[in-house]
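Please complete every field before forwarding. Incomplete forms are returned to the sender.

SECTION A: IDENTIFIERS
Entry label: holo-1282
Bound molecule: thiamine diphosphate
Molecule representation: SMILES string

SECTION B: INPUTS
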Amino acid sequence: MTRMTFQQATVAAIADEMRADRDVFVMGEDIGRFGGPLRSNAGLFEEFGAEGRVIDTPISEGTFVGVGVGAAMYGKRPVVDLMFLEFLALVMQQFLDAGAMHYYSGGTQRVPLVVRAKFGVGPFHGHAYDHHSWLMNMPGVKIVAPSNPDDAYALMRAAIRDDNPVLFLEHMALYHAGKAEVDDDTPLSLGKASIAREGTDLSIYASALMTKRALAAAKVLAEDGISAEVVDLRTISPLDEATILTSARKTGRALVLSEAIGRGSSSNDVAALLAEQAFGDLKAPIRRLAPPNIPTPFARELEREYLPSEDRIVSAAKDLMG
Amino acid sequence: MTRMTFQQATVAAIADEMRADRDVFVMGEDIGRFGGPLRSNAGLFEEFGAEGRVIDTPISEGTFVGVGVGAAMYGKRPVVDLMFLEFLALVMQQFLDAGAMHYYSGGTQRVPLVVRAKFGVGPFHGHAYDHHSWLMNMPGVKIVAPSNPDDAYALMRAAIRDDNPVLFLEHMALYHAGKAEVDDDTPLSLGKASIAREGTDLSIYASALMTKRALAAAKVLAEDGISAEVVDLRTISPLDEATILTSARKTGRALVLSEAIGRGSSSNDVAALLAEQAFGDLKAPIRRLAPPNIPTPFARELEREYLPSEDRIVSAAKDLMG
Amino acid sequence: MTKSNQTPQELYYLMVQTRTLDRVIGAHDGHWHGLEGEEATIAGIYHGLQKGDVIAPHYRGAVSAALAKGADLKTLMAGCLGRSTAYHKGRHRSDICGPPELGLIGLYAGSLGPPLGYAAGAALAAKLDGRDDIALGVFGDGTSSRGDCHEAMNMAAVLRLPMVFVCQNNQIAISTELSAGVAGSITARGASFGMPSAEVDGNDVIAVKNAMDEATARARRGDGPSLIECKSYRVAGHFYSDAEDYRDREEIERWRAKEPIARFRAYLIAEGIQTEEDLDRIDAALTEEVDTAFKMALEDPVPEAALLAPDDVYAEARP
Amino acid sequence: MTKSNQTPQELYYLMVQTRTLDRVIGAHDGHWHGLEGEEATIAGIYHGLQKGDVIAPHYRGAVSAALAKGADLKTLMAGCLGRSTAYHKGRHRSDICGPPELGLIGLYAGSLGPPLGYAAGAALAAKLDGRDDIALGVFGDGTSSRGDCHEAMNMAAVLRLPMVFVCQNNQIAISTELSAGVAGSITARGASFGMPSAEVDGNDVIAVKNAMDEATARARRGDGPSLIECKSYRVAGHFYSDAEDYRDREEIERWRAKEPIARFRAYLIAEGIQTEEDLDRIDAALTEEVDTAFKMALEDPVPEAALLAPDDVYAEARP
Ligand SMILES: Cc1ncc(C[n+]2csc(CCOP(=O)(O)OP(=O)(O)O)c2C)c(N)n1
Ligand SMILES: Cc1ncc(C[n+]2csc(CCOP(=O)(O)OP(=O)(O)O)c2C)c(N)n1
Ligand SMILES: [Mg+2]
Ligand SMILES: [Mg+2]
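SECTION C: PREDICTED COMPLEX
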């Protein structure tokens, strides 16, 4: 048990895995001596640089993620830093190929690759784009988006141990936003949502920063006598369908949050799943809250308005209660 | 009024626009003398080649789509052939940038670009991947997927006249699959779904090949006394929400088809929309039919099983009727 | 474009303008990407283009590129500050994305590299229209490692596009030294695509300007693309608040001593092209101009969130 | 790998094997990408690799690459036919994607270019492990225009990876002639990344083999990547059912006359390395072997659709 920030927990998980397994190495732009933007790889160069396990690369996203894929195919467990999720468009083919390999090889090929990416509206102005939803419609790829330091630690270790290509999302508004207890004994596995707060009146589905806002909103709602359950998806692909359905069946109401624009958002999968498999238990229409279908705006004032806020979550929940 | 195949209608639409507007030109790999795989540009080189308006390019997808973006920024109306949708992963950044330009420029920039792509399980073995759903979650981009020659003609003309980047999908199983009347006076515009068949008991949502199968299934259902309405989305992004909702409100039941794998499919947007805005009118859970979450398999037997078939559409519809 | 008698003064003006706005914006915004050390390269590249020319500038120097194409200083600064009076109404960043209506292709979704392809498209448009306009594709040494760079050069050479590629080689990319980013030589890459390619001293504004004149003339004549590699040094940090603990202080100081404005100043005076007083006057005027513009921009209104209209994402059909 | 005394015979074997399977598969499947004219290049590239070496072959020649790495002929053919007995169980195509367990990196989702990066990753894995294994990245002239090719070469050179890049330049890409796809020279591109780069006659199997030996030895020694451009000609159509109305018949016939197997046969006989009878015997044995394998593969079962298990898309944790 140690108190750490999200950033520290993420780096600690990588360092612990690097100590445990010589096949784990890190790679990306400016992650060596520089330590990565926002200190995303701080300390790794000092500990593992001399062994050649901290590799700075040229600005060639497709190829350095591709190098990760190839190294993962032949025995290594690379943790590749994409820097920002903004650059996901440049490495789609690599995810597509890597995701197909296990199936297409007849089950012989494994691709234990983690690609990390910072994203999200936050203190680091710009680079906010949330493009992860594209990877939902890509077979064989996993997507993880922790909402707190403890999960960041456990999920990063699980992602490194997973034998599939994983996109690991690091929200910049959570990155240095205070320390929390990190339990390094948490059992490790991907694919499980958590009930971040229990409730009985409605279920709020969220991940990353949206989970934090949902939890804040749930507090406010509690003061008004509304008991909101917050389901933190944690693994966005594949979805933990059982946990998602159980919650909605219990509460009968669903509010689905998204930091990505609403159209084509991964959150629509949650809504569609509920509409198909929890329909009979729903007492009200499913409610979605997401930014408008525009690129993330630059001006702080617009950026703020763009994301679902605590206030808007509260008022959507109240609407839902009718 | 002429009888044409889907392929002929698409090329005729491009040729008509090229005759009408000197700023329209075509570009892509092997579209010149060769005429493009599956004759996708047949005849254009002969008519417009000498004017330099049929441009063969090196194998540089990002850049030739990028050249399309740049030419569209500065006065031209390029129709770029990506060959197969299989290569969409290579041009995501170009779509992302192009889609953002109008908004980010403060409204001064227009990007009248059409990117064509063949896709779909069909006679052309391989190259089947349906990746279009990725572009749903990309602001400013439109997606069009006609299901018949007449729509292909009208929508291609509309896409070329549209001042936004458009992905135009050409299903290879529809491409040479018989001629139909093509009305060259159809009023042109993107963004409208059509009621391909009227019905009262349930609504089936589809596009491209799935529309054809839905129509076939609807005939079978009619024999069993079930009246299925088939909504042909035609424009997948943005969705024609009004038509989608009106149909479900009328029939009270919704079956949503997808040729893309179910997870992250654009069809989940349809389901989520209905769950949010037609919930009160629905008499049954929304039903989704899509391929399993695996890459398109190669063996003909697997490929066939992979897609929602007429039979499975019929039986899902019957389930839905309870 | 023939070189006017005014060229030396104009180059000097652009160099000092670049330095002045760098200091003013940098003092305000720690994320501003500093231009110190690269003023000669920037001025030499962007001086003297014609109205229909299109530029995909390297992001470091993009504001100067917009100014050279006639953009309004105050409006650009409002864009750096996210004000509603900006060309883009506060929706984007004018530090990396200039007004397209003036021929500027920016970083829309943030990725370095693809704009080189867009510039090639603008060049193709000019060629199809039979105009003698050209396109410039400018990129950093780090950006040269993007596949886009290779694809765009090959495409421009195969299609014989009226285009000039310029590498703004400041020998570093964030913290990555040239040798850790770029194998071999960027000039040799240009040559490997069969285009005239030359390395010039990026701290010598006249050398950059001469190389540009030759390349742009060639492109306007329809003789196809060229590459110019301007070798210089990023004296500035990656951005203003960069702690720069990854770099050798002495090397920075060595390059600071070679700084291009003092060098050009000395040249102008020695050659009798300008007097020291003339140049001082230009400096003072620019300080005044940039300060004023920045202050005005600061007072401009921020965008009203309520006006954040999602409908604007699609261009409507023209009436 | 030192050249064994067997090398000439083995090269001959690989060349004839390539030609034989080309004819057999091509006669059955109009979409098969013909290999005629490129047998020397293919054999010269893939002969004599060691077990831990990894190949990202060009798709045209990928079956020969897999055979050279020890894959079973019948199982590969079952893969071309989509049979359940294939390495991939009928889920994919062994014409473009060989068994990874034998060191083959294929076209998984169909795009040319990215496998060069995967090969670089395999090279990095060997380097990190301290093995003397290498990776080959092979690509066509058309594929050389993909940015991936440039990025992979730069990456391999910067990281000094044990890798050999080989361009299988058959002077055409579908219908696009070399000059419409490739500006300048592919060999010069390799050189521009600071790596040893050489053009060889791709119809001369010994020349290809010698160049490969030098490059692989260099890579195994830890001295970094090289590029070899094998200049040859696609005598075959793009695929077997290609109408080829875009090409000059006479040019094809000119190159057919230079065909590499006859040339190598003549050399082997003239040098007294093999007798005509020996070679005839190899030819006959291969015809028999390939025919038999193909017939067996044809009789193999097709995959049962019911067994199409979506769960197999993710690798389960190892026990
Ligand atoms: C494709 C892409 N990768 C990474 C980044 C993040 N990034 C911003 S600036 C920069 C360094 C660019 O180096 P260089 O091209 O040499 O330009 P310089 O900063 O030296 O002017 C990087 C890596 C980006 N914007 N785009
Ligand atoms: C990225 C990508 N673009 C286009 C294609 C379609 N395609 C398949 S083969 C081919 C030609 C490749 O030319 P080259 O590399 O010269 O190989 P060759 O066919 O001559 O052996 C093309 C364009 C593809 N598979 N991948
Ligand atoms: Mg630089
Ligand atoms: Mg070729």
